[in-house]
């Protein structure tokens, strides 16, 4: 372990790289940069500004904001003075925000705008208990009644306080940072919670120092690498990427939003991509859609190139030499097809990482046939983000790879994945009972996930323990596997499979509206609303046929026998998805209770 804390790591790296570019970000329509030296100056101002407010080691400082460069700076400032960052998803509801602020007993709240702050009621008890509220970008807004000055002020005012404080306290930041130790508490990350209240996962500097070293040993990267940060910092995966940027000296570009990722890739041109499967699924769908709309020659050329790429991929996976004839064909496929797809990703991508949810094996294999290697990993907030990852020289699609060096993994008799290692969290904050239930006396963390380990030590995740469906015939079914299979079709955007204690499986489906409308235009059909699409006889017939084809890849008891199309996507805003886009199954089933009951009680199957 090279550094004694993340604070020491940040200061050391910032002074090492000086005038090199650390962050690239868009502001007022223009791309700007911060060098390491500029970032250090701003971190020092924020850190000493917080110290001037009386924030001290162990105090909780919440950040309620979308991703932006200031988020990173504030986090490093907290880390340097020993305050615990409590990230809050920018999409959280007011009740969720207040729960976290109250449960974590936060002293200070930083929020990105008055607009977001205005969604919170000034009279809420957790807000009244805050010592200070700081608005990162106060432009175009005003303080809500009940939150008047001096309780609310702008980040630039905090930085000015920090500058004045630093003038009278030379070397204050170094003194504060130098006292940080591996065993010191670092952050409280609240799990998004597919059911029940979220838990606050408390981790230390030592937990993440171990993970950073282990990931560095597993993946080949360097200070020459560039990343595009779009994973939310409130998610442990996004936070790990943020830490790795500093640990390895990457240049980090900030996506302007999730909607602009495709354009931002062309500007930032990342060499590394950290992402959840949804981004790869969307890219897969776009490629398939363009292929379907292409000419006969374009479709033939693409299929030929993918066939060549698949043969090369299989030989590489099996560590076999690639014959010279196949190498020539592969070079031609790269020039004619793969280079165009690479260009749409910025043109420099050499490695992609997937985590946060299962990645369909078909997608991993497809992208590898296009000369893009996606390494899937696994972990939880409670394991300081990661416990397993595939390696560039050793990978298997459909698995999350072997464990990180120093990490132990075993499968319990009921199939649950158990993990033990230096990255297992300290405790659930203010929840001793929950901590005892999660970590047994031997130190094994019970993940709640179901999986299997093959003869070479590769872990395969099959489902969440609590999500397993047991049919009336006693068969156990993993719904995520079926849902991922259904989502492989370009028409299907989301899928949720149900059927616990029932004789057959049922599914709620949402569609890729753009894909369906394009099909409708080709067929001479005009759709006026999502509701019309969801109920149109020809759409229903085509979706039925698509599900029938997918059922052929499943065992009889896994087949979906009844379905309904929802006119709108499941969303975070309606609390049907977690902020990390996992299904809140109980919420969805309750919201669409009548549809679910109708499918269950049908005397005969739809399919």
Q: Keywords, please?
A:
alpha/beta; four-stranded mixed β-sheet; 607 residues; GMP Synthetase, Chain A, domain 3; Rossmann fold; single chain; five-stranded parallel β-sheet
Please characterize this protein's 3D structure.
The strands form seven sheets. This protein has a five-stranded parallel β-sheet, with helices on both faces. Strands 2-1-11-10 form a four-stranded mixed β-sheet, with helices on both faces. The chain is built from 22 helices and 25 strands. The termini are far apart. Strand 1 and strand 2 (30-35) form a beta hairpin. It is globular. Among the domains are: 6-181 and 219-274, 3-Layer(aba) Sandwich (Rossmann fold); 468-601, ANL, C-terminal domain (GMP Synthetase, Chain A, domain 3). With 607 residues, the chain is of the alpha/beta class.
Q: How would you concisely characterize the structure shown here?
A:
With 607 residues, the protein is α/β, with parallel strands linked by helices.
Shape: globular
Instruction: Measure the end-to-end span.
Output: 57 Å
Tell how many strands the DSSP assignment holds: 25
Q: Main beta sheet, described? A: 5 strands, parallel
Radius of gyration of CA atoms, rounded to a whole number: 25 Å
By CATH, the topology of the domain at 6-181 and 219-274 is Rossmann fold
CATH class of the domain at 6-181 and 219-274: Alpha Beta
CATH architecture of the domain at 6-181 and 219-274: 3-Layer(aba) Sandwich
Average pLDDT reading: 91
Strand content: 15-25%
Helical segment count: 22
Q: What class do helices, strands and sheet pairing give?
A: alpha/beta
Low-pLDDT windows of residues: none
Percent helix: 40-55%
Strand order of the largest sheet: 4-3-5-6-7
């Amino acid at each position: 372990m090279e550094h004694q804390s993340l604070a020491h790591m940040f200061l050391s790296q910032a002074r090492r790289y000086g005038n090199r570019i650390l962050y690239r970000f868009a502001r007022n329509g223009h791309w700007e940069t911060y060098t390491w030296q500029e970032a250090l100056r701003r971190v020092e101002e924020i850190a000493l500004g917080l110290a001037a407010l009386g924030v001290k080691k162990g105090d909780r400082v919440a950040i309620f904001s979308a991703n932006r460069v200031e988020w990173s700076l504030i986090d490093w400032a907290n880390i340097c003075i020993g305050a615990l960052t409590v990230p809050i998803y920018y999409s959280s509801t007011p009740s969720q925000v207040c729960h976290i602020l109250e449960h974590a007993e936060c002293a200070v709240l930083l929020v990105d705008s008055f607009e977001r702050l205005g969604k919170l009621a000034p009279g809420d008890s957790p807000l009244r208990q805050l010592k200070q509220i700081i608005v990162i970008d106060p432009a175009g807004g005003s303080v809500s009644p009940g939150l008047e000055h001096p309780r609310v002020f702008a980040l630039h005012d905090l930085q000015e306080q920090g500058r004045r404080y630093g003038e009278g306290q030379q070397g204050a930041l170094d003194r504060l940072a130098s006292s940080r130790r591996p065993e010191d508490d670092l952050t409280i990350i609240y799990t998004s919670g597919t059911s029940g209240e979220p838990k606050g996962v408390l981790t230390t500097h030592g937990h993440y120092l171990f993970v950073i070293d282990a990931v560095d040993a597993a993946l080949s990267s360097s200070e020459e690498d560039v990343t595009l940060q779009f994973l939310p910092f409130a998610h442990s995966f996004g936070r790990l990427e943020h830490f790795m940027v500093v640990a390895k000296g990457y240049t980090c570009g900030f996506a302007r939003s999730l909607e602009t990722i495709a354009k931002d890739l062309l500007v930032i041109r990342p060499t590394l991509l950290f992402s959840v499967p949804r981004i790869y699924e969307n890219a897969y769908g776009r490629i398939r859609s363009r292929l379907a709309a292409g000419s006969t020659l374009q479709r033939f050329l693409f299929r030929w190139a993918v066939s060549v790429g698949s043969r090369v991929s299989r030989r590489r996976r099996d560590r076999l030499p690639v014959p010279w004839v196949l190498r020539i064909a592969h070079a031609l496929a790269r020039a004619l097809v793969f280079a165009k797809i690479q260009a749409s990703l910025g043109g420099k991508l050499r490695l992609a990482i997937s985590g946060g949810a299962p990645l369909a094996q078909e997608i991993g294999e497809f992208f590898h046939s296009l000369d893009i290697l996606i390494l899937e990993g696994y972990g939880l907030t409670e394991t300081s983000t990661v416990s397993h990852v595939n390696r560039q020289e050793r990978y298997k699609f459909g698995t999350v790879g072997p464990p990180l060096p120093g990490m132990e993994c075993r499968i319990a008799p009921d199939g649950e994945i158990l993990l033990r290692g230096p990255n297992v969290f300290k405790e659930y904050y203010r929840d001793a009972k929950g901590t005892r239930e999660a970590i047994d006396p031997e130190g094994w963390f019970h993940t709640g996930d179901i999986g299997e380990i093959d003869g070479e030590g590769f872990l395969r995740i099959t489902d969440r323990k609590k999500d397993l469906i047991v049919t009336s015939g006693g068969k156990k079914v993993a719904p995520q596997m079926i849902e991922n299979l259904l989502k492989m079709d370009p028409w299907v955007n989301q899928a949720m499979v149900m059927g616990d204690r029932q004789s057959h499986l049922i599914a709620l489906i949402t569609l890729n509206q753009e894909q369906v409308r394009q099909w409708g235009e080709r067929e001479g059909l005009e759709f006026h609303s999502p509701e019309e699409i969801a109920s149109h006889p020809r759409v229903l017939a085509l979706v039925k046929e698509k599900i029938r084809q997918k059922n052929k890849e499943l065992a009889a008891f896994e087949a979906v026998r009844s379905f309904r199309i929802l006119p709108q996507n499941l969303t975070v805003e309606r609390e049907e998805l977690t902020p990390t886009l996992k299904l809140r199954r109980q919420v969805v089933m309750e919201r669409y209770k009548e549809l679910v009951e109708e499918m269950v009680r049908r005397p005969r199957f739809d399919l």
